[in-house]
């Protein structure tokens, strides 16, 4: 019975790729509360949410780069530099665990708070933020319209995730069953000889787990004093042993703290959707192109005593590597937005929304 259902569902998509339905499934539609999402959107593009009013969520999660960032390790709060690549927010609403090391596994409300208050991200005291927002008549009106009463921390932490619900993939050739010949061969390699779907499966092309794939360190973290400061402070705060001498990003070790160190260097499997926009890749932005990523896997990753045994030399020829890249490209749809709006109003930098009452964006 189960097999028949799978087969029937698969045929509806396209007989040729029926295994797609079984292995990957589809992203579920999500209900969105418009008034809350609209408020969330204005907050997302408002630099007043950072301590010194210089960074909005969109400064790092830039819409024109798939809500990720073109820098290897994205921007940071004034006086700091970061040590991790800015992840895409497209489809983040479908995730169960967030951040490259999976350190938050509750909900996007908590992830939003972490981004606002973390000292190297927005470095904002939320009590101060609440008072700032109350001084803006547009917010007073919008919070009320969204059913939150007056501007509040809780409202912000609820409205931004509501906006994130609107950032979902829908139009990729993969979803529309429109793979090119090359892409189809790439899919066969992805699920077969190259073994990618061992970890990249489900609607996000991610198993939602952490693995050590032998991605080398980005030495910039240790060479740039501003990055190194942030890195040390973070590791101290997370209770990592020997944080002063650390020469690697420990990844998911922050949660498991295994004494034998076998969990060092594990990172959460990212989604493979919308990669066309989100370069560079990996937790530290070390790889610039998908060709480089595929070459990395083909070589079996870098040496690492904790490396997952499924990461091994693949012996793919040049043509097969190109096919895999074609498949990866088929997982991106039309951009959610192509416009870049930046403007200053009353001394604050906004992007994208000018007037929430008339904006169609
Ligand atoms: C200064 C840059 C910066 C700003 C500003 C920023 N972020 Fe992030 N964000 C990051 C980085 C870097 C990470 C990954 C950090 C890590 O893994 O340790 C991240 C992670 C996330 C994640 C988890 C994504 C995932 O797939 O695990 C979400 C969701 C998120 N940010 C939302 C927001 C929201 C909402 C705002 C505004 C309130 C915001 N961010 C502001 C840089 C930023
Ligand atoms: C053992 C599990 C595993 C296997 C097998 C695997 N991956 Fe990954 N993949 C991961 C993890 C974990 C990461 C994140 C690593 C990091 O951030 O350092 C990743 C990252 C990526 C990224 C970067 C995405 C981004 O946004 O940064 C791409 C692209 C990718 N994998 C494609 C592939 C392809 C193609 C294959 C097959 C050749 C493959 N993966 C096999 C676990 C795996």
Describe the structure.
Helix 3 runs antiparallel to helix 7. The protein is mainly alpha-helical and 361 residues long. It folds into two domains: 34-167 and 336-351, Cytochrome c-like domain (Cytochrome Bc1 Complex, Chain D, domain 2, Orthogonal Bundle); 177-335, Cytochrome c-like domain (Cytochrome Bc1 Complex, Chain D, domain 2), CATH 1.10.760. Mean pLDDT is 90; it is low at 1-18 and 354-361. It is globular, with a radius of gyration of 21 Å. It contains 14 helices and four strands. A two-stranded antiparallel sheet has the order 1-2. The protein has helices at residues 2-13, 18-23, 34-44, 57-60, 108-117, 126-134, 137-145, 153-164, 181-191, 220-223, 225-237, 253-256, 290-298, 318-329, and strands spanning 210-211, 267-268, 342-345, 348-351. Bound molecules: heme C (2 copies). Residues 100, 194-196, 198-200, 211, 213, 215, 267, 269-270, 272, 275, 278, 281-283, 290, 293-294, 297, 308, 310-311, 324, 328 line the site of one heme C.
The CATH class label of the largest domain is Mainly Alpha
As a percent range, the share of helical residues equals 25-40%
Side by side, the strands of the main sheet go 1-2
Shape, principal axes of CA atoms: globular
Instruction: Kindly report the average pLDDT value.
Output: 90
CATH topology (level 3) name of the largest domain: Cytochrome Bc1 Complex, Chain D, domain 2
Order of SSEs: HHHHHHHHHEHHHEHHEE
The CATH superfamily of the largest domain bears the name Cytochrome c-like domain
User: Span between N and C termini?
Assistant: 45 Å
Radius of gyration using CA atoms only: 21 Å
Question: Count the helices. How many?
Answer: 14
Q: Which second-level CATH architecture of the largest domain applies? A: Orthogonal Bundle
Overall number of structural domains? 2
**What are the segments in which pLDDT stays under 50 over at least 5 consecutive residues?**
1-18, 354-361
Question: Which structural class best describes the helix and strand composition?
Answer: mainly alpha
Proportion of residues in β-strands? under 5%
Number of strands: 4
The major beta sheet can be summarized as: 2 strands, antiparallel
Bound molecules: heme C
